[in-house]
Amino acid sequence: MILHLSRLCFGTAHRIRAGKRQMHSGGKTRRTATCSCRAVELILTGEPRGVYACSCLECQRCTGTAFSYRAIYANAALVGQKGETRFWRRTGSSGQWLKQTFCTICGSVVFMRAEGLKDALSVSVGCLEDPHFPAPATLHWPDRKHKLLCLEGLPKVA
To answer: The pTM is what?
Structure first.
């Protein structure tokens, strides 16, 4: 069966309530992010301080699709990490650096850090394997958005 998608929507009318989450001692949410081959694993506690989509050309190249979908967590939320990673560092349009961190085996970009993102990391939401994860609240680089994405109702960040 072939499914044809005319538009992919993340607007406010299409948001899904957060679903079942793992809890650990202390009552905090606990999520695990893994790469495709499961060699890299991040354990995160608490809720992200932000969820966004980015349609800049670098995010399109990095993900191999029309946009990135990421959650920003405080550094303190990262309570465990295993597996070998490497990163590549580039300069963004702002002149500040960004580091995309990926698995050395499968190449999945699991998270990134940025000079402008103080004391935090930005985790690829697809690595969290949670179809009920909150929808993006903002869209970066809206002028680069593919036309098939409606992303209605999201504030635009230039």
So the answer is: 0.77
